[in-house]
Amino acid sequence: MLTNDQLNQWDRDHFLHASTHFAQHARGESATRIVTKADGVHIEDRDGNRFLDAFAGLYCVNVGYGRTEIAEAIAKQAHELAYYHSYVGHGTEASITLAHMVAERAPAHMNRVYFGLSGSDANETNVKLVWYYWNVKGRPEKRKIISRWRGYHGSGLITGSLTGLTPFHAKFGLPMAEVVHTEAPYYFRRPRRDMTEAEFTAHCAAELEALIDREGADTIGAFIGEPILGTGGIVPPPAGYWEAIQPILKKHDILLITDEVVTGFGRLGTMMGSTHYGITPDIITIAKGLTSAYAPLSGSIVSDDMFTVLEEGTDKFGPFGHGWTYSAHPIGAAAGVANLKLVDDLGLVQNSRDTGAYFQTALKARLGSHRFVGDVRGEGLMAAVELQRDPGAGTDFDAGDKITAQVVGAMAKRGVIARAMPQGEIIGFAPPLCITPAEVDVIADATLHALEDVTGQL
Ligand code: PMP
């Protein structure tokens, strides 16, 4: 049996972790948490510590950990057929069944799905779908994609460009020229404090129009947005936002991609976040909740209108020149089929709606009027608590205080994992969709007590 010391040494010497300070990690200054097992909403590390995972991994383990139905489906698939590809019309029972199940759960006008492996590669596929679409339509100059500041759409080259968070751009020479960003629909950080929500929505719409005018609608192929901003701070849009944005896109012949990597399959208390906000997209990105992360799988769901153009294109130009070796990987697909069944059988969309409402109320009750809390917000089972030094005056903590990192650290000591969101002083929550009201209370209490642990002396 390997000792912790041995594993930690190998980790520092060989393992480059995602989004990690390489130097500190290699020097052993940042702790490695080696997670060994999990069940329900709890994870356990190698030291035997047990935590309530209030972020479901990276808001992906929607059905909770340790589901034997999915583990068995994966094992069965691996025994029978570990792999076959999906090039030139090949498929497997699992991938075809999952495509059908996705179409059943997507908005009625969307019936076809292109499978990938990650949210990032699905958005990469989406950009190529958009570019292909406008080429078939004889308008190849419609190449630019509008994204929002604080949007998160992946960390590849074009997808990292779409992501509107500067750490994903700086030192990489991004964003790429095809990507332009517009105002984040972030009411708490509105330009003027006296703006009403309706005025702020009108401001976001006007900013979008101005950007389209500046760039030229003839050069813009699509707009991409998450129904509610996720990694950028867990920010529901201001009232009327999607109602205001969609007609502008329509007027200028700009396709709409809703990135539902986080919101797809129940997180907001509806099967799809697009439905929740009355959005009618041309493409939907799905990933995390598709398999609850039991195996990597993502997808791009396309509308029937868009598919008509793809058909026309392939009739004219031949096969669609795009694919990954692992597109529609049978093990991911088997996990997806078992996962979506479980979401139905356990009534998790309904639980997300009901326990989600309880969660929002519980967080507001404990933290809403705390002297260092500027904002408590969320929708369904996604929520955020934004910290400020003086909420009344609107003064922020210094980034150097690392206040959120400290609070999240204190929460872990109290047995609850939340996420310090990457930009701003924001504690993020997105527990598995099977969470109970009693577990919600544990999360809300731990947050309040950890905040007191850290700020009690201030
Ligand atoms: N889109 C959204 C909305 C996401 O939240 C994420 C990941 N957090 C991605 C895309 C990228 O997914 P992946 O990390 O699987 O590439």
From TrEMBL:
PROSITE patterns to which the protein is assigned, alphabetical: AA_TRANSFER_CLASS_3 (PS00600)
Citing just one GO molecular function, the answer is:
pyridoxal phosphate binding
- Which segment of the chain is annotated as a signal peptide? none
Q: Which Pfam families match?
A: Aminotran_3
Q: Which cofactor does it need?
A: pyridoxal 5'-phosphate
Keyword field: Aminotransferase, Pyridoxal phosphate, Transferase
Which InterPro entries does the record match to this protein? Answer: Aminotrans_3, Aminotrans_3_PPA_site, PyrdxlP-dep_Trfase, PyrdxlP-dep_Trfase_major, PyrdxlP-dep_Trfase_small
Q: Which family does it belong to?
A: Belongs to the class-III pyridoxal-phosphate-dependent aminotransferase family.
Name the chain's protein. Answer: L-2,4-diaminobutyrate transaminase
**Which source organism?**
Roseibaca calidilacus
Q: Which gene encodes it?
A: doeD
